[in-house]
Amino acid sequence: MTTAIVSAMHEELAAVLALMPDERMQVVGGREFWLGHLRGQPVVAVLSRIGKVAAATTATALIERFGVRRIVFTGVAGGLAPGVDVGHVVVADSFLQHDLDASPIFPKYQVPLYGLDRFAADPALGEQLAQAARSALPGVRLHRGLVVSGDRFVSTTGESRALQAALPQALAVEMEGAAFAQVCHDYGVPFAAVRTISDRADDAAHGDFTRFIREVASRYSGAIVEALLRP
Ligand code: ADE
């Protein structure tokens, strides 16, 4: 059963690639897919690049061309809800596109013609990911809940507050998860995501994100993925 391991940026995936002893690279849709093993399990690792369209392309290629049986996203996110702070870890249980609004034809946030505004993570894979995060990063604060995605890097306190007011259940914001979740829903492929909080999506987000992605993101991703795939 091949597992896809995906991040948006190289800094988030470098430690995962370093754990693959036998990877070979194949280019599809302008992306490098790394096929090999991690802790003895078949894996395809890939950088999706940033944003919902890039995420949807990557998810489709993983399923159609590489036949992966489950997809795990690992990366960083901005904290939204109070108490979801830099260095904490969020395992999503559902995803919503915060920038989707086809009103008044459809209710705000609803994905047109699906009758849904959020897609669930696979419960079993989400639980495995949460357990992997707990064992890989003992003492780290772990949150589970709604993660929202949009084609915006949220980097002002004003926008962060507006998002929190509109979507009080949202724990964190990023730019890919809901797109992966929608494609995986379409194909019936289990999907789960773990995000380390790199910033608070506020006026300090730019600096915090840059520092965190350089110093911590890859290490956390590598440790969690290694624990997830440990036989
Ligand atoms: N990923 C990490 N931080 C983010 C932010 N503030 N907005 C969107 N995506 C992010």
From TrEMBL:
It is an enzyme of class 3 (hydrolase). Coiled coil: none annotated. Pathway: Amino-acid biosynthesis; L-methionine biosynthesis via salvage pathway; S-methyl-5-thio-alpha-D-ribose 1-phosphate from S-methyl-5'-thioadenosine (hydrolase route): step 1/2. GO terms for molecular function: adenosylhomocysteine nucleosidase activity. Residues 3-229 form the Nucleoside phosphorylase domain. Its EC number is 3.2.2.9. The keyword Transport does not apply. Keywords: Amino-acid biosynthesis, Glycosidase, Hydrolase, Methionine biosynthesis. This is adenosylhomocysteine nucleosidase. It comes from Caenimonas terrae.
